[in-house]
From TrEMBL:
Pfam families: BPD_transp_1 (PF00528). Residues 62-252 form the ABC transmembrane type-1 domain. Its main location: membrane. GO terms for biological process: transmembrane transport. The chain crosses the membrane at residues 65-90, 102-120, 126-145, 188-209, 229-251. The keyword Transport applies. It comes from the Bacteria. Belongs to the binding-protein-dependent transport system permease family. PANTHER family: OLIGOPEPTIDE TRANSPORT SYSTEM PERMEASE PROTEIN APPC, PEPTIDE ABC TRANSPORTER PERMEASE PROTEIN. It is a multi-pass membrane protein. Keywords: Cell membrane, Membrane, Transmembrane, Transmembrane helix, Transport. This is Peptide/nickel transport system permease protein. It is found in: Cell membrane.
Length: 269
C-alpha cells in the first residue's frame, strides 16, 4: 500500500474513531459545568459557551452526525439507483421521460429550501431533515445512475448476450454490476460529502439538532461568535468534519482510479 493511501486512510480514520470511540473516552470528563470560554480541568482545549469541555463535546458529537448522514445517503441511493436503472433500461422513450422528468423538476428546487421547509414544518425534527436531505439527493443520484447504466444496458456486450438467447438474469446483472461498480462507488463518496454539507448547513442555521447538542456542526454554529476568544471550540469540530470529507473523497479517488492511469503515474515517478 502506498504512503499516499495511508495518509488518506488516516484522514478518514481519525473522525470515524472519534465518532465511534469518543463517547466512551468522554465519560472520564468532569460532569460539572465550568466557566464558559475558559480553561478546562480535563483538556487543553478549554470550554465552550455552555462551560463544557471542548474535547469532551467533540468526542460525543460525531456519532449522531455521521449516522444520520450515512443512513440518508444509503436511503437516497437505494431510491435513486432504482429510478436511474429503470429509466436506462426502459424499452420506450415515454417511460424514460415519465421517470426522469419529475427528477428534472426536483433538481430545479434549491436543496437548502427543501431542508428549511421540512425543518420549519416539523419544528426541527432530525428525521424530517434527514428525509429532506435524501429527497434533495435522489434527483442527482438517479440522473447519474441513468447515465452510467445506459452505456452498459445498451452496450455491445448486452446486445451480444441477447443475440445468444441468454435467459439467465444474473448474467446480465453480474456484468452490469462489474461495469457500474467504479463510477457508482465514486459517486457515493460525492453524495456522502453532499449529505454532510447539507446536514452541517442545517445544524449551522439552527434547523437541525437541539442548539445545546454537542453535534459537530451545532458546536461550530454555537461557538462561532467567540472564535477569537476560544478558537478550539470552533476549530476542533470543524476540523473533524473537514478531515472526514476530504479524506473520503481522496480515498475514493485513489481506490477507484483506473489501473492504467495508476501505472502511468508510477512509471513517470
Amino acid at each position: 500500500m502506498s504512503g499516499r493511501r495511508w495518509v488518506y486512510l488516516t484522514l478518514v480514520a481519525v473522525p470515524l474513531i472519534v465518532a465511534v470511540a469518543g463517547p466512551y473516552v468522554a465519560r472520564s470528563a468532569p460532569a460539572d459545568r465550568q466557566a464558559p470560554f475558559g480553561p478546562s480541568e480535563w483538556s487543553p482545549f478549554g470550554t465552550d459557551r455552555l462551560g463544557r469541555d471542548v474535547l469532551a463535546a467533540a468526542l460525543t458529537g460525531g456519532r449522531t452526525f455521521l449516522v444520520v448522514a450515512a443512513v440518508t445517503v444509503l436511503g437516497a441511493y437505494a431510491v435513486g439507483f432504482v429510478i436511474g436503472v429503470a429509466a436506462a433500461a426502459a424499452p420506450r422513450a415515454w417511460l424514460d421521460d415519465l421517470l426522469m422528468r419529475p427528477m428534472d423538476v426536483l433538481l430545479c428546487l434549491p436543496s437548502l429550501l427543501i431542508i428549511m421547509v421540512a425543518a420549519l414544518r416539523t419544528r426541527g425534527s432530525a428525521v424530517a431533515i434527514a428525509c429532506a436531505i435524501g429527497i434533495a439527493l435522489i434527483a442527482p443520484i438517479s440522473r447519474f445512475v441513468r447515465m452510467a447504466a445506459r452505456a452498459v444496458v445498451h452496450g455491445p456486450v448486452m446486445d451480444a448476450l441477447r443475440m445468444q438467447g441468454e435467459s439467465r438474469a444474473y448474467r446480465y446483472g453480474s456484468y452490469a454490476a462489474r461495469e457500474m461498480m467504479r463510477p457508482i462507488a465514486a459517486d457515493v463518496g460525492v453524495r456522502f460529502t453532499a449529505a454532510v454539507y447539507f446536514l452541517a448547513s442545517a445544524n449551522f442555521l439552527g434547523l437541525g439538532f437541539d442548539t445545546t447538542s454537542t453535534d459537530w456542526a451545532v458546536s461550530v454554529a454555537a461557538n462561532k461568535d467567540a472564535l477569537t476568544l476560544a478558537p478550539w471550540a470552533v476549530a476542533l469540530p470543524a476540523g473533524l468534519i473537514v478531515l472526514l470529507v476530504i479524506g473520503i473523497n481522496l480515498l475514493c479517488d485513489d481506490l477507484l482510479a483506473d489501473p492504467q492511469t495508476v501505472a502511468l503515474r508510477a512509471s513517470a515517478a
